[in-house]
Write a structure and sequence with these properties.
The chain is built from 14 helices and eleven strands. By secondary structure, the protein is an alpha+beta fold. The strands form two sheets. The protein has an eight-stranded mixed sheet, sandwiched between helices. Strand 5, helix 7 and strand 6 form a beta-alpha-beta unit.
Length: 361
């Protein structure tokens, strides 16, 4: 720019004088000064300390203490002369820096700042590593030891649930003897979608007595649509949440749900809760397609019986789903549950056992 070129021609000089000679407006003067300063192309200086440099650059003879300009309003050459309104008196004298030097200085400054940031990151990492070793249960998802924590604050319970669901990798199982308030229900549905998208198998059991309420029926319908496996049972012994066979949360007192919760960590403790849950799960009835299954004399619903009949005849899941008028996911879940109940390891074996048990004609 013109201002920089003129300053460079002069060497050490008054920024205000040059600005006045170039007829810069106050706004232009401020903008150019700030830009040149930010780029490191000019630096504030004392002319008395840079007289020799000024003489070399300007090719002029040395003065008494600085670089003298003619007709600029600076009477004595040391920056203490009169100004033009744009200058700052003796504070507007600057030295001009070559672009190459300014660039090298800028790179050096950025490198030093980056080095400081890296040092800060190393210190923060060391602090976090210390905290993790001291307070977090490092490796708790794979350790086989046991640990129990008593949770009495509701907010703490909710936070622990959120923390657990953030690290689930395989399965989440829960049972609920009571209905959920609307706010909690929305949070549950949001959590369901997030877990299922991550490939987690989500199961839930509810007591028959709460299913009759419209709010719970709507919640179950939406959970099934999201991909949750839902079953209904005559009695749910307690509220229970199990995650990845590593975490189990149960109430301190099943008769007093608001008394707090117990968080059990480690397979050594959680296995017992899983056994109880699986027993309740296999004695419960599947809930799907918006209605509770009507049970036949052998414990099978009409839908289950029809699915087994089509399975035994060799039909694929897609054709069974079309025949029943349900989704493919519902059929896959239903057949998986029936095979598990019969102890069958293949579709063919399930068909054979269904014939043998008299469940299909």
């Amino acid at each position: 720019m013109t201002l920089y070129q003129e300053l460079r021609r002069r060497g050490v000089s008054s920024l205000g004088e040059v600005g006045a000679q170039l007829r810069l407006s106050p706004e232009e003067y401020e903008r150019c000064r700030d830009e040149l300063t930010d780029l490191g192309l000019i630096v504030p200086t004392n002319p008395a300390q840079h007289g020799a440099r000024a003489e070399l650059r300007a090719g002029l003879r040395a003065g008494e203490g600085g670089h003298r300009q003619d007709g600029t309003g600076h009477g004595d050459g040391d920056g203490n002369g009169g100004g033009d309104g744009n200058g700052d008196g003796d504070g507007d004298t600057v030295a001009v820096i070559d672009p190459e030097i300014a660039l090298l200085r800028l790179l050096h400054r950025e490198r030093e700042q980056l080095r400081e940031h890296l040092d800060e990151a190393d210190r923060a990492y060391g602090t976090l590593e210390t905290l993790a070793g001291a307070f977090l249960r490092a490796g708790s998802l794979t350790r086989s030891d046991a640990d129990v924590e008593l949770l009495s604050d509701y907010r703490r319970i909710q936070q622990v649930l959120e923390d657990i669901t953030d690290v689930i990798q395989h399965s989440l199982a829960s049972m609920h003897p009571t209905s959920l308030v609307r706010e909690v229900a929305e949070r549950v549905l949001s959590r369901d979608r997030r877990q299922i998208e991550n490939g987690v198998r989500v199961r839930a059991m509810y007591s028959e007595r709460v299913v009759s309420t419209p709010e719970v029926a709507e919640l179950l319908r939406r959970r099934v649509e999201a991909g949750v496996e839902v079953r209904i049972t005559p009695a749910v012994p307690m509220t229970m949440i199990i995650a990845d066979a590593q975490f189990a949360m149960v109430p301190v007192d099943p008769a007093e749900p608001m008394a707090g919760a117990v968080l059990a960590r480690g397979p050594a403790l959680v296995r017992s809760y899983i056994a109880l849950y699986e027993h309740c799960w296999h004695t419960a009835s599947p809930y799907g397609d918006g209605t509770t299954p009507e049970q036949g004399g052998d414990g099978l619903s009409e839908q289950q019986r029809a699915a087994l009949t089509m399975l035994a005849s060799g039909m694929k899941d897609e054709k069974i789903a079309r025949g029943l008028g349900v989704s493919l996911r519902t059929v896959s879940r239903m057949l998986s549950e029936l095979m598990q109940e019969m102890g069958a390891t293949s579709r063919f074996e399930a068909g054979v056992r269904a014939h043998r048990l008299g469940w299909v004609d």
